[in-house]
Amino acid sequence: MRAKTKKSISDSLETKPSLLSHMPFLLQDLWALGGSLPHIISAVSALKIASPKTRVLDLGCGKGAVAIQIASKFGFYITGIDTMKPFLRDAQLKAAEYGVSHLCEFVRQDILEYVSRKHDFDMVILASLGGIFGSFRNTVTKLRRQVKSGGYMMIDDGYVKQDPLLLRKGYNHYKIHEETLEELTAFGDYLVTEINTRDFSEKINAEYLKVIEKRGKELMKSYPELQSDLSDYIRTQVEEYAFINEYIEGALWVLQKKRRDPATNIQKPVSRGADEGRRQDAEGSRSAE
Ligand SMILES: C[S@@+](CC[C@H](N)C(=O)[O-])C[C@H]1O[C@@H](n2cnc3c(N)ncnc32)[C@H](O)[C@@H]1O
What we know:
Strand 1 (55-59), helix 4 and strand 2 (77-82) form a beta-alpha-beta unit. The chain is an alpha/beta fold. It has helices at 3-12, 23-26, 37-47, 65-74, 85-97, 111-114, 136-144, 177-184, 198-222, 227-247, 282-288, and strands at residues 55-59, 77-82, 104-108, 121-127, 147-160, 190-196, 248-256, 259-261, 266-268, 278-280. It has a single domain (3-258), classed as Rossmann fold (3-Layer(aba) Sandwich), CATH 3.40.50.150. The chain contains eleven helices and ten strands. Strands 3-2-1-4-5-7-6-10 form an eight-stranded mixed beta sheet, sandwiched between helices. Strands 8-9 form a two-stranded antiparallel sheet. S-adenosylmethionine is lined by residues 5, 8-9, 12-13, 32-35, 60-62, 65-66, 81-84, 87, 110-112, 127-129, 132.
């Protein structure tokens, strides 16, 4: 595995490269690895996409929690990309358990490499991958190349509550709300919806901590040499969640890529109407579930 890939995986899982091979053990009790699953499902549902032939790309799909539930609920075709072999194996087993193996393809590849080529999906999802592509502007630049004209881009991440000066590793891409929206829509795409995910993030972070503390202790017994790295990892996770709770507001954004006029090849703003933009706060999204 390339050093760059290894770094992006350990960053996305907020761990040290030395613990990477133990992450499947530490995270064995979790299916969703950070994505705001109920909000994503509710956002997809609100789009009211009629075609069962819809093709969805899930970048950094982990164990396929998002991908498989979308395939199962909407009948869409999913391509999930990740480099963690044990996660992809779990994803395949879960797809079989949910009876959607025929709709799901899980590919072992570096997403940094995958997005260097253009694709024509109907929707792309980037859930809980932080600033893997850099700024939100760079992220949208990459994601737009993965979907067709009029296609959807779903980003599950967040923005800074007030202070834009965040001196914590992995938080460089965060901006205040207004600047984040400017970057997300820098290419004239339409913001279909924004959902506040704080409630779910707090819940999943607490659950995550409980799990890694329990499994971390078990791992220390089998690998005493990892004691210091594991203790560091658990301590950093505790600090990380305290930091997120204080400074970051979780958000899920759905953008619709500007349509291209086939006659003139000119990019047209997406018309409102059926897809009238909605901002849902946590309350709104809960009622939509
Ligand atoms: C925090 S998890 C989120 C997983 C999934 N989206 C979810 O919400 O359950 C991040 C995932 O991204 C994957 N990942 C990180 N960097 C990657 C890269 N460069 N190429 C492929 N997968 C990557 C990790 O292996 C991990 O499974």
